[in-house]
Amino acid sequence: MSGLQPVLPSNQAPSTFEYGGDEISAIVLDPGTAWIRAGFAGEDTPKSVIPSDYGILEEAGENGGKKYFIGDNDVHSIRPGMEVKNPMSDGIVADWEAATTLWREAITPRLTAALSEHPLLMTEPSWNPPKNREKTIEIAFEDYDVPAFYLAKAGVCAGFASGKSTGLVIDVGASNISVTPIHDGLVLRKGCVRSPLGGEFLSNQIRAYFESANIPLSAHYQVLSKTAVEVGKPAEATYRTFAPGEEPTESYKRFQEERVLTEFKECTAQVWVGPGPLPGNNNPPLEAAHAILSPGGRTFEFPDGYNLVFNSERFRITEGIFHPPSMLTAPNPDPHTTPGLNQLIANAMKDIDVELRQMILNNIVITGAGSLLYGFTDRVNAEIAAAFPAPRVRVMAAGNSVERRYASWLGGSILASLGAFHQLWVSKKEYEEHGPNIVEKRCK
Amino acid sequence: MSGFQDVRDVMELSGPTDATARVPIAKKQKTVERRPDGITRELFALLGENPPPVAIVESKFKEKPRWMGKVNPWVWKPFENPARSDGLVLRHWERKSEPSQDLEYQFGKFNVKVDVPAYTDGEYEVLKDPDWTREETDYLFNLCREYDLRFVIIWDRYEFPAGKSRSVEDIKARYYSICRNLMELRTPLNQMTPEETQIFNLLNFDKERETARKNMAEVLFARTPEQVKEEEMLLVELGRITKNQAKNLEERKELFNRLEVPTSQGSIAAYTGSQGLAHLREMMVNSNDKNKKRKSIALGSNNSNNTDGPQQSFAVATSAERLGPGGGGGGPSQKDTPQPKKQVRKLTPEEELEFGVTYHDKLTSGVKFRSAMVTATVKGGTAQKVQAALAQLDISPRLAMPTTRTVQKFEQLQTSVGVLLDARKANDKIDNEQRVLKAQIEAAKEDT
């Protein structure tokens, strides 16, 4: 149809009905455990992405109050005594004061200073309790003074970003892996399941492996200069020294180490092809698997120049996501009661009407930065195809890493720019009439 | 050109004069002169009258785009959504030249609601169900309104305090039965318009059937990989069978067509005249002949299926054999005469001998000489010795007249000769051993 129509001249606007859009310059805010994404509705990428981790110095601000250090530039600088904290816990807000500050900071410097002029759409995980939802709308209207507000489910938004209003959204976040079945743009609550096997879990797996193999983990801030060394040879680097009392805090060190672990996840970790658990996992010799896995290992260089070739360990650290009994020693979660991703999908499908299952399995969407692990989507595809042989299974994962990481923001951006959506906003007037409880009635 | 003029002179034609003839030449030369830039004159001359083989593009700047009009301004304009009751004013960019826009918000029309019927207290008395309380029914209808009759969602969000767990079918059955009863209550069945009757019939929800269907869907969903594979295989097989069935039916139909006497369906008007009658007679004779032929073929094929078929062919073969290789010509004539259908009769050995009937265990196809069928009864080294012995006796290894009996005798002869030769060999061996032993005994005696 569109091919038949003549190309519009650049000074003529396309009919809004062609895409159903009506942009009212709403702001979309997608707060996650690792990153907070904010941008204008109708755009394809968030303009402002800041880490959810923030630095805090007690009694350093004006009148001896707290001082926050927010954003990539501030939180990574070395400050003696600065603690690095995260306001989220299990994907939902635990520290409201910090969250309020962080969210405002995500919007104001780069998008707009006048929050009262832009409607705000926020995303929330499907397991967000009503109390938290009410607190969120309270912050939006009381603190930010927005003219209108809406709280959308992150899973539904991620589905919209892939053009699906019905499907199964597998979101691999920092704190959780969540599986959310959606139908007609509504979450099927009975099928929502999650497991604490996200990015943080993977980091802990890598840490546990490094400890067991006596591999020293260094962070970038500790190293002043380094020289190239042979594989496996001790590092020859000059380290930064701190005067007594000037050392960065333990939480800062851990936060900086986390960046190295993220790098390790991105370029070294890999997921076993499956289906079925990694062979030879429970017996110590991995030689059988070794032969199948990969002919050559991958080298990883630590910030201090120490470098190693990793072979089958690359697969072992990720296997816990799919097969929790084979996770490396970590205090929590419990390997025997935590459901792996396969189990999660099976659990989600169990509580869905049988008529929907077929359609939902045909529209599986994988999102979240954790799903960018090498071989992750292939493994999910293989596992689902093995678990559900009868229906047609189709797994979709955006090839573009930006779209994969910001899928729920993108879906929110699409939603808030639709003309037909504007009747759903909760206005300030409605909030004042009904109180924060209105969020339960309006944002289903 | 002069040649052209000569022809004109010879034919005494008053054509165009030289002056007029030259005009086109001059024109042509003019066009040749026009050569585009960027190509040398020598090269252009080589091209002759043909257009240049490559497009020559002059390098110049892109033309300035010609705008269709002046720039249209946009304004940041407040608007109200008629779908909202709170009068929220949002702002969006709008074309300044479209004044009619603000009258009605264009997306307001998407605010549609499903019509869920409401009942009064009096009406509820009729709609009572022992399984459902009034409160739960109200709760269900509120959910139906809230979620626009998306029953899967309603079931998913169904949390009636202290209520029993309901399946999607329970919810649907309750909702539709209320709708149906309410409709009947308000307009009796006989007063309904056809459209209303249609809707009334559509509201009939068969819970048992739906539950059974769901169960079947569940079973279908839970198939194992083996079952899926088997099903696929069966489907392929079914496709093959149905395809073949069509082919078989086609073949059978064709066969029936051949067997049936063609019945005339045309009018008899063509056969009313004397000529027409003659034509008809000819046709009938022809068709009779054809039928006869068909019948004989059919009979022949029947015969070949009978048990006396092979016997008959054997008889032919043996008769041919009796006549010798040269007298084989008698065979085909015998075959052509139609064999009267007769009872199968067992032949006595004498008769078999008389008629030359023989039975074979195994016959390979094709024609061959009986002499070639002489089986070598003796094998290995003895075979050569037997040949030599026969040659000594002036018996040719190839029989001049290899009838069944001579071949049989010949084989017997070969076997006997072979046995005899073997016996002689054994005899010689024993003789030798005897002699050796005797010599040893002699030697032993001498020693002692």
Automatic annotation (TrEMBL), chain A:
PROSITE patterns: ACTINS_2, ACTINS_ACT_LIKE. Pfam families: Actin. It comes from the Eukaryota. InterPro entries: Actin (IPR004000), Actin/actin-like_CS (IPR020902), Actin_CS (IPR004001), ATPase_NBD (IPR043129). SUPFAM superfamilies: Actin-like ATPase domain. It catalyses: ATP + H2O = ADP + phosphate + H(+). Belongs to the actin family. PANTHER family: ACTIN (PTHR11937). Actins are highly conserved proteins that are involved in various types of cell motility and are ubiquitously expressed in all eukaryotic cells. This is (Perigord truffle) hypothetical protein. It comes from Tuber melanosporum (strain Mel28) (Perigord black truffle).
TrEMBL record, chain B:
The keyword Transcription applies. InterPro entries: DAMP1_SANT-like (IPR032563), SANT/Myb (IPR001005), Swc4/Dmap1 (IPR027109). GO terms for cellular component: NuA4 histone acetyltransferase complex; Swr1 complex. GO terms for molecular function: transcription corepressor activity. Residues 128-181 form the Myb-like domain. Residues 290-349 are annotated as: Disordered. Component of the SWR1 complex which mediates the ATP-dependent exchange of histone H2A for the H2A variant HZT1 leading to transcriptional regulation of selected genes by chromatin remodeling. Component of the NuA4 histone acetyltransferase complex which is involved in transcriptional activation of selected genes principally by acetylation of nucleosomal histone H4 and H2A. The NuA4 complex is also involved in DNA repair. This is SWR1-complex protein 4. Residues 299-316 have a biased composition (Polar residues).
